[in-house]
Amino acid sequence: MIENVLWVAVAFMLASALTPRKKNWRKLLGAAGWVFFAIHWFIQPGHYLEINDYFNVALVITVGILCLMISYTMFREYRHPEILENKSADITSMATSATALGSLFYFPFAQMESLNVWIIGLVTDNVLWTMHLLNMPAELTAWNKIGLNGYRVEIILACTAIESIALFIGLIISVDAPWKKHLKAFLVSVPVIYGLNIIRDVFVIAAYGYQWFGPNSFEIAHHTIGKIGSGIALFAIAYVVMRILPELIELIEGVWLLVTECIQNILKKVVGNN
Predict the structure, then answer these.
(1) Pairing with 21, which of 69, 84, 127, 196 sits 20 to 30 Å away (CA)?
(2) Alpha-carbon distance 268 to 161, whole Å?
(3) What sections of the protein cross the membrane (predicted)?
(4) What pLDDT band is residue 23 in, cutting at 50, 70 and 90?
(5) Does 67 participate in catalysis according to the annotation?
(6) Quick one: pLDDT at residue 256?
(7) Which of 21, 200, 243, 262 is catalytic?
(8) Is-catalytic flag, 200?
(9) DSSP-assigned states of every residue in 142-155
């Protein structure tokens, strides 16, 4: 079901991105895409609650709410196209294009078994090689499982950083800039994210295998330290990418303004001042 919802969301977003700007019904297509994208995120908290990953529970709910805000804004832009007349950039269309492009890159790895197995196997081999380089007696217990000191960790698609890589690729491609700047932004983000993710996986397996944090070593290393470290790293990488592609700042500022305006409108309606 989740996969079908995702494909429907991407199909609407892609149709919106490919529709000429003069056709205002592209906004309606985009709004529908963001609704299905929100449904995709709202389905997921149950899975993360089962594995006690509360960080991701909060994250997917927040992303789902953001999707609904963008959908609502695009629907308003469809009904009242004059809203865009006084704006320097069409932020919702830019965000829709970036999400569609990133999703097109990500979904083949999520849906096609050959690509799924290839990237998981590649990351597993790279993690094992790095652990051996650090003189850790890790061993391959299955094609995607690494054992250390009697403890085993399975490498899954989420351990490959493909979601973050797809996000940056979508953002980089979606802005209008010279190709040299696109290439530079790609080189300072995608390879760096992949390399840092290998280090994160090594840290999690080592922390679990050597029980650095006691009985809950995996949860502490993976759910807390790993996610905080990933967040800081992605923030730093995003800063460097924005220095290379300042056009991205306009998109991010626009999304931030969209969110704050939606919250203000909701608050006005709640307190009865609208």
Answers:
(1) 69
(2) 40
(3) 27-43, 55-75, 91-110, 117-135, 155-173, 185-208, 220-242
(4) confident
(5) no
(6) 86
(7) 200
(8) yes
(9) ETTEEEETTEEEE-
What are the pLDDT digits (tens) for 129-167?
999 999 999 999 999 999 999 999 999 998 999 989 998
Bridge partners (DSSP) listed for residue 140: 146
- What confidence category does residue 168 fall into, taking pLDDT thresholds of 50, 70 and 90? very high
Kind and range of the H or E element at 10?
helix 2-18
Are 74 and 92 within 8 A, CB to CB? yes
Distance (Å, whole) CA 127 – CA 155: 10
- Per-position b or e across 176-187, b if 16+ CB within 10 A of its CB: ebeeebbebbbe
Q: Which of 152, 159, 243, 262 is catalytic?
A: 159
DSSP string, 225-249: IHHHHHHHHHHHHHHHHHHH-THHH
pLDDT on residue 114: 94
Q: Give the pTM.
A: 0.78
Number of helices (H), then strands (E), belonging to the chain: the values are: 12, 3
Instruction: Enumerate the β-bridge partners of residue 146.
Output: 140, 153
